[in-house]
Prior knowledge:
Largest sheet: 2 strands, antiparallel
Number of strands: 6
Order of helices and strands: EEEEEEH
Low-confidence stretches: 1-8
Structural class: alpha+beta
Number of helices: 1
Shape: rod-shaped
Radius of gyration: 22 Å
Strand order of the largest sheet: 1-2
Helix content: 25-40%
Number of domains: 1
Oligomer: single chain
Distance between the termini: 75 Å
Amino acid sequence: xxxxxxxxxxxxxxxxxxxxxxxxxxxxDYAGSTIAVTWPRxxxxxxxxxxxxxxPFTMSGTILRGETPEQAHAxxxxxxxxxxxxxxxxxxxxxxxxxxxxxxxxxxxxKGG
Length: 113
């Protein structure tokens, strides 16, 4: 069987290095079909024993004319990756603010207040 032949992607939304793998199934026209993509939940532990999560995020996309399901998945995943990267600093700041508030409460209670 070997490695399937490939051609460069002809869809303008493809990255320049995306390849289209050609097989009998690839001649199916998927245009207009939808694909659901999920960015998984990530758990971060910037402080020992304290975690926060980011995600999961799920988005549906439409497969464009000339695009394979794999290319549509990659296109939607790139969008979800950018969303997660944009949200991470905000989530981290909110997490650290909550830790600071908890520490202030603990200090007040330790002083009897």
